[in-house]
Amino acid sequence: MAKNIITISREFGSGGRSIGRMIAEKLGYKFYDSEIIDRVVAESGLSKDIVEKYDEYATHKRSFLYSIAINATTSGMDPYHGMSFANQVQIAQIKVINEIARDGNCVIIGRGADYILRDRDDVLNVFIYADMKHKAERVLSRYGANEKKIEDRIKDKDTKRKVFYRSFTMREWGVYSNYNLMLDSGVIGLERCADIVCDVARAD
Hints:
By secondary structure, the chain is an alpha/beta fold. 55% of the residues lie in helices and 12% in strands. The protein is built from 10 helices and 5 strands.
C-alpha cells in the first residue's frame, strides 16, 4: 500500500533533512522538523530553551519512557507529574508525533518517529547515511568551521543520537532491521535519494 507517512532518520551531515524536505515538496506532504519543537512547547508548557536542549538528545537512560507515556495517556494521569524535563519533552513529542501522523501525508525528521509509529502500516521508515568525507564537506559548507575538529563534531552528534534512540526505543540506531530503506546519500546524491523514497512511497 502507498505510504502517507515518511520518517527520516539520518547521520549528521548526510543531508537527511534536506532529502526529507525534497520528498515533502515532491509528494505535496507536510514537513516536520523544527516545527515539532513549537508544538512540544505548547503541549508541555515548557520553555523553548528547555525543549531545544532535550530535543532528540538523551542525557540519561530512560528505557521505559514510551510505556510510561502511553499508560499515563490512557489512564487519564498527568503524564508530566514528577518527570524530569528530559522525560517531559519526550512524552510531549510522543503525543505531538501521533497527532501529526493522524493527519497523514507528512514527512517527519528524527525524534524516534519510526518507533513511535511502529504499529501503523502506512509508514515508510528511511535511514540516510554517508561516508565521513561527504558528511564533513556538507557540514563545513552549511555550518562552517569552529575550534572542534569536523570529524569529532560529526561523531559527537551521531553518538548523542544513538544514545537517544537506544534509551528511548531499546533498539539500535542505524540498524537495517529498524527501517524499510537505507540510502547512502554520498553515493546516490540527495535528489536521487528523494526520488527513490517517493517512488517507494507511491507504490501500491
